[in-house]
């Protein structure tokens, strides 16, 4: 060793130190990974044990027909739900999840029993505290949970939120107001913000899911000065097949906003008569694509054999969506008549005939 | 009467098993379509209740197995959260006898099961 020059000795020493450090770092990493894995496994096992117990408990509670919740809690199966357990965050978290899992799939008395559990464990009170948090998403989540468990009671706070700058808060406020029922179903006409397509879709889906016997005052919505409320009103009238509406349909057919024109034509197609047939065919050429598609739907439901040439010409339209709609329209119109085939016989154009054969084969 | 229940949500499966046990059914439950196909051959149930979307293989595959591979007429009830008309129609076309949409009432499901089995309601 003494023969090795000093600078080489220093180099060997440095290499040994670095190697030792790397070895220690490796060991630390391996140990931490292993301990992480063991702890994750232990946690998963614990979660699954807790979940199993909670599921047994919920099942026992739902099968119980004669006891109220206080009496049930004195039974042996409820021992596990001591105050000590309930203090653990993980336990409460899983209990909350499972109550919602059950709530999601049950109806009627079974759902009411799930709601009793929710209230009994104090989740309702706790979640209502989230209303007053600064973070908007906590308010949204809390309201959605209370809506799902049907635990939303009369509250005036949502009226103020209808004009909140955040669209998620506005939407949840609308849903809350609607679900609280009564005259508040008319709350839609109190909205001052223009609704986005997404908001409209969500409101319509919510109303459909809620299966309300009383739908909003649609005439009020349709005649509202807000364009988006007008459109929402027409879409709802179409979905709920509301025939008794106080509105000037003729003025909507020529409304400057194409979305209003589309909505009224779709409504008239489903719920109206054929009085607009000629006017809509006349307007077709100058209309925008979505309005054209709505017109084709109207013609398919109210048109006669005389309208076949009009639709047939649309098979050659520049827009693919219109060509497809025209083909579907021809197929619908011809389910009860031979007008399409008669038209073909009278039409000597070879390319027209080829196109028609293609459409017939396709549909 | 033997009943096979295929449902991937563990809590709902427990509830269904417990409920039908109380109605004096001999219940076998599983959480995926693949197990359900094996159990169908093993248990030979009198009626099957199945979810549509499950891990590994779903309710459609189970219905197909019962109707096409085994050519059996065992009554099948689909219990699913899907409210898409196409899915309801296609499961009925494939051979399911009934469709119960989630959320549902236990009592309604029990009545439908008993009706299909021709036992007293």
**Which regions of chain B have little confidence, pLDDT < 50, spanning 5+ residues?**
none
Low-confidence stretches of chain A: none
Give the radius of gyration of chain B.
Answer: 13 Å
Q: Can you tell me the CATH topology of chain B?
A: Rossmann fold
The chain pair forming the largest interface, with residue counts per chain, is:
A-B, 18 and 16 residues
Q: In which order are the strands of the major sheet of chain B placed?
A: 2-1-3-4-5
* Biggest β-sheet description of chain A: none
Structural class of chain A: mainly alpha
Helical content of chain A stands at 55-70%
Task: Describe the largest sheet of chain B.
Answer: 5 strands, parallel
Structural class estimated from helices and strands of chain B: alpha/beta
CATH top level class name of chain B: Alpha Beta
Nearest-integer average pLDDT of chain B: 90
Integer average pLDDT of chain A: 84
Please give the domain count of chain B: 1
């Amino acid at each position: 060793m003494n023969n090795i020059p000093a600078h080489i000795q220093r180099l060997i020493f440095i290499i040994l130190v670095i190697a030792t450090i790397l070895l220690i770092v490796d060991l630390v990493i391996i140990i931490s990974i292993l301990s992480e894995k063991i702890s994750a496994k232990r946690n998963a096992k614990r979660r699954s044990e807790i979940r199993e117990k909670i599921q047994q408990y919920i099942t026992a509670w739902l099968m119980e027909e004669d006891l109220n919740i206080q009496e049930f809690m004195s039974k042996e199966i409820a021992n596990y739900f001591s105050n000590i357990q309930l203090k653990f965050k993980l336990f409460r978290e899983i209990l909350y999840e499972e109550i919602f899992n059950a709530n999601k799939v049950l109806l009627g008395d079974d759902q009411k029993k799930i709601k009793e559990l929710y209230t009994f464990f104090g989740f309702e009170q706790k979640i209502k505290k989230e209303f007053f948090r600064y973070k908007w998403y906590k308010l949204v989540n809390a309201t959605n949970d209370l809506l799902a468990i049907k635990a939303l009671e009369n509250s005036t706070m949502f009226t103020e939120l209808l004009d909140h700058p955040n669209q998620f808060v506005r939407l949840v406020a609308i849903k809350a107001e609607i679900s609280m029922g009564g005259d508040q179903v008319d709350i839609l006409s109190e909205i001052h913000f223009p609704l986005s397509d997404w908001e409209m879709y969500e409101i319509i889906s919510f109303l459909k899911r809620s299966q309300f016997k009383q739908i909003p005052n649609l005439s009020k919505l349709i005649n509202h000065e807000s364009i988006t409320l007008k459109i929402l009103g027409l879409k709802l009238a179409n979905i709920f097949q509301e025939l008794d509406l106080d509105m000037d349909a003729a003025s909507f057919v020529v409304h400057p906003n194409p979305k209003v024109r589309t909505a009224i034509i779709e409504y008239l197609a489903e719920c109206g008569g054929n009085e607009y047939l000629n006017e809509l065919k006349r307007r077709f050429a100058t209309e925008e694509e979505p309005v054209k598609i709505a017109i084709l739907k109207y013609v398919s439901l109210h048109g006669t054999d005389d309208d076949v040439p009009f639709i047939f010409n649309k098979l050659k339209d520049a827009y693919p969506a219109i060509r497809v709609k025209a083909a579907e329209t021809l197929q619908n119109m011809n389910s009860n008549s031979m007008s399409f085939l008669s038209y073909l016989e009278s039409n000597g154009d070879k390319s027209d005939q080829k196109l028609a054969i293609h459409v017939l084969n396709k549909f | 009467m033997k009943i096979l229940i295929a449902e991937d949500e563990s809590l709902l499966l427990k509830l269904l098993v417990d409920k039908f046990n109380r109605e004096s059914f001999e219940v076998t439950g599983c959480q995926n379509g693949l197990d359900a196909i094996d159990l169908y051959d093993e248990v030979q149930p009198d009626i099957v209740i199945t979810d549509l979307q499950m891990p590994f293989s779903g309710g459609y595959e189970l219905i197909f197995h019962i109707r096409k591979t085994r050519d059996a007429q065992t009554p099948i009830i689909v219990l699913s959260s899907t409210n898409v008309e196409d899915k309801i129609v296609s499961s009925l076309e494939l051979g399911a006898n009934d469709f119960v949409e989630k959320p549902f009432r236990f009592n309604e499901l029990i009545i439908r099961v008993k009706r299909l089995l021709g036992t007293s309601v």
